[in-house]
Amino acid sequence: MLGRFSAFLAVLVKLELFGRVQFITFGDVVKCVANRTF
After folding, report:
1. In this model, does residue 11 exceed pLDDT 90?
2. Residues 8, 11, 13, 19: what is their CA dihedral angle, to the nearest 10 degrees?
3. How far is CA 22 from CA 2, 3, 4, 5, 19, in A?
4. pTM surpassing 0.70?
5. Helix H segments across the chain?
6. pLDDT digits over 20-32, tens only?
7. What is the dihedral of CA 29, 32, 35, 36, to 10 degrees?
8. Cα–Cα distance between 23 and 32 in angstroms, integer?
9. Does the pLDDT at position 8 exceed 70?
């Protein structure tokens, strides 16, 4: 039970880190497009 829970936590942490990296790169792309457009 505890091992399964820790594995679930590890997956959650990986998903959160991956989502944060995606969000940061997406924000950078938006900034670049905004700088070129305006």
Report:
1. yes
2. -140
3. 30, 29, 27, 26, 5
4. no
5. 2-37
6. 888 888 889 888 8
7. -110
8. 14
9. yes
In terms of Cβ atoms closer than 10 Å to its own Cβ (0-12, 13-18, 19+), residue 5 is exposed
DSSP, res 7: H
Please give the structure tokens belonging to residue 18.
Answer: 């991956």
Q: Is 1 helix (H, G, I), strand (E, B) or coil?
A: coil
The identity of residue 32, as a single letter, is C
What six digits make up the tokens of 3? 């091992």
User: Which amino acid type is present at position 27?
Assistant: G
Q: Dig out the tokens for 34 from the structure.
A: 């905004």
